[in-house]
Amino acid sequence: MQKKIVKKAACLFLQYGYKSVTMDDLAENMRISKKTIYTYFDDKTSLIRASVWHVFDEVKTKIIEVQESMENPIEALYEIKKIAVEVLGNKEKSPQYQLQKYYPAIYVEIRKKELSALGNSFEMSLKKGMKSGLFRPSLDTQFITLIYFNGFRGLRDIELFPPEDYDIDQIIGKFIDYHLRAIVTPKGLKFLENYNAVKPHEN
Asked: The domain spanning residue 126 has which CATH number?
């Protein structure tokens, strides 16, 4: 039951926002009593924390699968973009805005975990690109990994990019293009430009 509550809560929070969804809403949606929810969670904050980590683990698994299974790291980044937009792309309710504003401690917890959870697979993807000739062979993969993760954090900063003014899909696409153009070889640049020409909606 605890897992079911977390899974449903995560779905509702992403759809309507962390602040907007109440414990009553969750209980009604699941057709259970609030008492049942409080059997497993002391308060709403503890439920939000569990839900955020649930989503984080799901996203982490998907991202690692993409990076390990796809040989072309440029294509892999755009596949990962789709995953990110699924979580971050609800502009109307802006779950990320509500999480940062009303539950900043939880948001900070997630930010701190991202690099340790995904850094190795991202660095492995960079090495694939170097080996295939798409990325420059002289790259400092550790440095590039740190810069990329720091930049991606900035995209979600609601003070830098207020959700009412910026579409997360577009700014992630621009960031990926900016990142790739800094590390590709002429071969990689040709592939990137051809890829963008064929799939303009992906950027």
From this structure: 1.10.357
